[in-house]
């Protein structure tokens, strides 16, 4: 079985600051790092490090070779990652002393996906496989439709939150992933969930809640000393989907994902902060 991901690939530039700037204020950064990021790349890396076979579908610009090489170094299959002459996606990230962050994202090549390439990449997909989607690329709805036709389950991270994008994709979604703010925005937009769609709401350090019909499953968070929370939600998402794809129930999949996300915030970076499965299992061992 396989986890496919139509997902963003970004060059992250991270600035560590004593505190986050107020509007109109200039502050001095204490450190600057460049690394692989993007919600799609982060989720692909997490699913791969959790033990899944992962095929990434994406696009980078002329300067994006290093992003693809780093993504592949984590065990993600990248033969369906294309390159064009325009700029790659990138993100500017500020992280404060408490590990909180603010992020500005430029879509770049992520907005220039090709539907024929997506169709070709999903050509071998079928029942038992999963497709990961987020709101940082073009063609989410078309990809979700192609997946549904093939019997592939779709996990959709509705971030950055956009109500109309969610409405278009939602009819094809098996698992909707939201943080607490996005869950509130969902309700404010008056969007009704399909009866067969599960919702997974992440709650930061408090953990996460799985909702399906009247059923509720709560996963507690793990107390750790946070260094950088960038990508923690993506780490959680990738681990959860890898667990479900492997046949684990939501409760077990969430426990692994919560531990992985907790470990990820104890180190700087996004994709590079994702722990492997062995480390997660050691963390969970009594």
UniProtKB/TrEMBL annotation:
Sites where the protein binds ATP: 179, 202-207, 233-234
EC number annotated for this UniProt entry: 2.7.1.15
Residues involved in K(+) binding: 228, 230, 264, 267, 269
Domain Carbohydrate kinase PfkB: 3-276
Single GO term (MF): metal ion binding
The UniProt record lists the keyword Nucleotide-binding: yes
Any one of the GO CC terms: cytosol
Subcellular localization(s) per the UniProt record: Cytoplasm
Active site (catalytic residues): 234 (proton acceptor)
Cofactor: Mg(2+)
Pathway the protein contributes to: Carbohydrate metabolism; D-ribose degradation; D-ribose 5-phosphate from beta-D-ribopyranose: step 2/2
Keyword presence, Kinase: yes
Protein's GO biological process: D-ribose catabolic process
Origin superkingdom: Bacteria
Cited InterPro entries: PfkB_dom, Ribo/fructo_kinase, Ribokinase, Ribokinase-like
Record text on activity regulation: Activated by a monovalent cation that binds near, but not in, the active site. The most likely occupant of the site in vivo is potassium. Ion binding induces a conformational change that may alter substrate affinity.
Chief location bin: cytoplasm
Catalytic activities: D-ribose + ATP = D-ribose 5-phosphate + ADP + H(+)
Family, similarity comment: Belongs to the carbohydrate kinase PfkB family. Ribokinase subfamily.
Name of the molecule in the record: Ribokinase
UniProt lineage: Bacteria, Pseudomonadati, Pseudomonadota, Alphaproteobacteria, Rhodobacterales
């Amino acid at each position: 079985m396989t986890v496919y991901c139509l997902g963003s690939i970004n060059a992250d530039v991270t600035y560590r600051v004593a505190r986050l700037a107020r509007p109109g204020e200039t502050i001095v950064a204490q450190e600057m790092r460049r690394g692989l990021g993007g919600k799609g790349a982060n989720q692909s890396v997490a699913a791969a490090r959790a033990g899944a076979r992962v095929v990434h579908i994406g696009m980078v610009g002329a300067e994006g070779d290093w992003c693809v090489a780093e993504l592949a170094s984590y065990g993600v299959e990248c033969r369906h990652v294309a390159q064009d002459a325009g700029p790659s996606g990138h993100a500017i990230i500020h992280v404060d002393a408490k590990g909180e962050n603010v992020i500005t994202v430029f879509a770049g090549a992520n907005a220039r996906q090709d539907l024929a390439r997506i169709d070709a990449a999903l050509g071998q997909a079928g029942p038992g496989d999963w497709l990961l989607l987020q709101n940082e690329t073009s063609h989410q709805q078309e990809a979700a439709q192609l997946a549904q036709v093939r019997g592939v389950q779709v996990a959709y991270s509705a971030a950055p939150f956009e109500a109309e994008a969610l409405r278009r994709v939602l009819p094809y979604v098996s698992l909707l992933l939201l943080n607490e703010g996005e869950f509130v925005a969902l309700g404010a937009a008056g969007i009704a969930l399909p009866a067969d769609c599960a919702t997974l709401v992440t709650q930061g350090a408090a953990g996460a809640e799985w909702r399906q019909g009247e059923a509720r499953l709560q996963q507690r968070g793990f107390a750790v000393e946070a260094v950088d929370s960038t990508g923690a939600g993506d780490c959680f998402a990738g681990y959860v989907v890898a667990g479900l794809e492997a046949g684990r129930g939501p409760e077990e999949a969430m426990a692994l994902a919560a531990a992985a996300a907790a470990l990820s915030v104890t180190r700087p970076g996004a994709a590079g902060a994702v722990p492997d499965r062995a480390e997660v299992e050691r963390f969970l061992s009594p």
